[in-house]
Specification:
Blueprint lengths: L1 H28 L1
Length: about 30
């Protein structure tokens, strides 16, 4: 059960982290 949810959680963390970096970059450069 946990091993099946792990990839989805990892993907969500990476995705949210990437979006956060993009938003932070836009705010700092703007």
């Amino acid at each position: 059960m946990l091993s099946a949810m792990l990839p989805a959680m990892l993907f969500g963390v990476i995705l949210s982290g990437t979006i956060g970096l993009i938003i932070a970059g836009d705010l700092t450069t703007d």
